[in-house]
Design brief:
The protein has 434 residues and is of the alpha+beta class. It folds into 3 domains: 69 residues, Clp1, DNA binding domain (Jelly Rolls, Sandwich); 188 residues, Rossmann fold (3-Layer(aba) Sandwich); 160 residues, no CATH class. Helix content is 23%, strand content 32%. The chain has 9 helices and 26 strands. The strands form 5 sheets. Strands 13-12-11-14-10-15-16 form a 7-stranded mixed beta sheet, with helices on both faces. Strands 17, 18, 22, 23, 24, 25 and 26 form a 7-stranded mixed beta sheet that branches. The protein is elongated, with a radius of gyration of 25 Å. The N and C termini lie far apart (59 Å).
Amino acid sequence: MNKTLQKGKTLLVDGPASINISSGTAEVFGAVLKEGKNVLVRSGKRLPFEAKTNLTVNIMLGEGASIDEAEGSTIPDTWNNIPEEILTLETPAPIIMILGGVDSGKTSLCTYLCNKLLNADKQVAIVDGDLGQSDIGPPSTIGYTVIKRPIIDIFNAKAENCYFIGFTTPSKARNKVIQRLTEIKNEISKSSVNYIIVNTDGWIDGEEAIEYKVRLIEELNADLVIGIEQNETLTPILEKVKPRKAMVCKPSKFIKKRDRAQRKLLRELSYKKYLKNAKVRSLPLSWVTIKGAPLTFTNSYRNIQQIKELQRALDVKVFHFEESRDKISIVIGRNKWIDEERLLKFEEKTRKKLEILREGFEEGLLVALEDSQNNFLGIGVIRGVNYKRKTIRVYTPVTSEISTVHVGQVRLDKELKEVISPPFLTNYEVQKTV
């Protein structure tokens, strides 16, 4: 259908939708769109098409999509002077960090600032530190991209590099996130980029969140902190980083609010994007290094006799075992259990803790794949471990040689939907009730 807007009005489009500029000029987050330009609005995303002249667009709406019309610009006035402030920063490749709660418009502000700086002939890198709603790279990763031309949706930008964290929330991996973001900052600083914009997650409430954000600001040595807030929600963070330069702006009144289910859906669409054209690869466990899992799959192959002894002592078939200084880890059948008396007797005799995993504990876990130089190749999903053939099966689009498999804490079903991940290790209570 065709839609005509008068100059100065804004068309709000909730995807999935396709918008073609039939005549006139529009602007989306500072990116100028002229006649003939076609824009795809992904599901769960809202884009504002501000008419800079009288505007006619052709619209195709998908299931669940909608349009609305607003008077004037949807860009808050408090955003307009931020690009000028950034241009006054004199340090080489200054760090601009964006803070705000969930659905406050952080990504929209990043896009707007990037386009405004591009209009000033500056080269900009955007770092995505939001594990749960990542736009650059798959969910549970942090990554960056260098923007060389105006951009409408950061999601469509190609990642220069990604680092796998393995969680969709920073609360469970604060140190690792800060470490990786620092490495990204150092990596970008070696390039010819003029500005580095760091987008952060929406975790801002509570002492742990405040401490995390303060550490992030200090360790990245942000030159300018920009907070999107209402009701002084960021005050505890900004007070702790004084006298560091900071600006506070308001969120747009037209921000699309998403509930937990919608945010989960967006992550699942992202998994599908990064697993497009995936196939199952069978990797010999002796050829790859497994990291992040409760097992390394490295030291049971030479100990057939010890496995037999374990099976006699525990009266259960053992598919795999690993031994360290203070514990023994074993894999048993999916529906098998070990008598508590035998277990206690075994631990007393060996003076080691027995960790029990069930066959299939690894199925569905999201993984990152790296080459021999520790370069990120892509993601995959574990389909299973064959203990007889000593192989791991990974569903992935990666076709190059894989050296390392990083196992995360996100579990996906066959349709690439997130599912609740049960604990890896069993315990006495579980064994009794199986």
